[in-house]
Amino acid sequence: MTENDGEKRLFVLDTNVLIHDPTALFRFAEHDLFLPMVVLEELDNNKKGPSEVARNARQASRFLDDLTSGATPEEIRQGLSLNQRIGFDEESDEGLIATGKLFFQTEPMGDNISMPLPGKNNDNSIIEITVALQNNPDLPKVSLVSKDINMRIKAAAIGVHVEDYNNDQVLEDVNLLYSGVMHLTEDFWDTSTKEVDSWSEEGRTFHKITGDEARKWQPNQFIVIDDDAGFEAIVRENSDDGAIVEQVQQFYSEKQAVWGIMARNQEQNFALNLLLDPEIDFVSLVGQAGTGKTLLTLAAGLEQVLDEKIYSEIIMTRVTISVGEDIGFLPGTEEEKMAPWMGALMDNLEVLTMHNDGGEWGKQATSDLLANRIKIRSLNFMRGRTFLNRYIILDEAQNLTSKQMKTLITRAGPGTKIVCLGNIAQIDTPYLTETTSGLTYVVDRFRKWDHSGHVTLKRGERSRLADFASEVL
After folding, report:
1. Contact (Cβ atoms closer than 8 angstroms) between residue 349 and residue 298
2. Cα angle at 280 between 278 and 282, to 5 degrees?
3. Phi/psi zone of residue 29: left (φ > 0), alpha (ψ -120 to 50 degrees), beta?
4. Are 245 and 207 in contact (CB under 8 A)?
5. What residues does CATH 3.40.50.300 cover in the chain?
6. 37-45 vs 122-134: helix axis angle to the nearest 10?
7. Using one digit for the tens of pLDDT, what is the confidence trace for 172-220?
8. Predicted TM-score of the model (pTM)
9. 3-state class of 241 per DSSP?
10. CA-CA distance, 110 to 34, in Å (whole number)?
11. Does domain 274-472 have CATH number 3.40.50.150?
12. Could you identify which of 115, 318, 367, 456 might form a hypothetical disulfide with 395, taking C-beta atoms 3.0 to 4.6 angstroms apart as the criterion?
């Protein structure tokens, strides 16, 4: 949670921290935790329903029940040891080692403190309790931990030391996110290695490159040398003595077009190489609006479902979060309810069918065929399912938490490929940031796996109006 400065601390947890991450109880190392009673009340109020918030509230309550089970009132007042949870690994974390204690509020606090906070809502009560703890000279340094920005502002304004909960932060800076592309200097061949073995197999060209730099390359990372020859390759193997790279396929011309779609820039060409590779089971594409993420993914999916018959169908889903006000209840079947959220799918299918030469009848026949092979599914019903030989598209993946992302990706059965699309600069989910998004999480965690690939698309290709708007607005 925080850097260890050698001083033991007491952290007061806001409810949203436990709802965001129930295992936060065991992520504060040697420091002690304090839970106000109002936090327990809010957990109880949020525990009902099938939502992610309700599930996390119930899980946090179960953890607290385990900790208090069998404890006497005196033991609870003295603080419950958290080290009984050492090694807890439910979410594949590398051991949650907590050696501090957990304290509950067991008596009224903060009522006699004069505070400039209006009203008596739950947030203000937690802040007042934190102030009362800070005024106790027998306690170590007290800090309030909250995911609520406004609560942190109020607490800081009255002199309370407050912090955000950032244990789930994947990176310190989003600019450090793995891009999937390595640009080498023009003199790379002269300075880094003297030995390059080259050969061809079934029309594919490979090179074995030795040297210290080649050993650091990631599986399926793209290597680019911006010289006159324009060398572009993808890393197929890396070992202690170097790497084996394969020159990428080119999809820039109509002859190599994928369902009528050609790559308009280098990153789009790299994305098509990943999307069309049957040996790559997981692909993540990150980029701003208009970079072609959805169009390229759909074109590659249709190519492999209808033409090559590698997958049986395309399944597309996304998080149903409105940009503006919610339009309320939506009638119909699952697909009909999801239709308003799938405008991007319909727009891109229109582009993919506009080049059909069969006239209106041919376009309608193509549209009917695509409708039968592309299924729209809701994220709400994914738990417990297994998808076999499917091409799954997770759109707007930046709005998923790391736990939701794990739930969805683990639905993949044999022969299934998952493609995650998103723009981490457009996050609509409360308490998620660019560095804690589930999309950022999977990009970082999958980059060393031999059967995954990632590309960050940087150049918009929607229109000159859209490109200009992205720059100046």
Report:
1. yes
2. 125
3. left
4. yes
5. 274-472
6. 150
7. 778 889 999 999 888 887 776 657 888 999 889 999 988 888 888 999 9
8. 0.77
9. coil
10. 14
11. no
12. 318
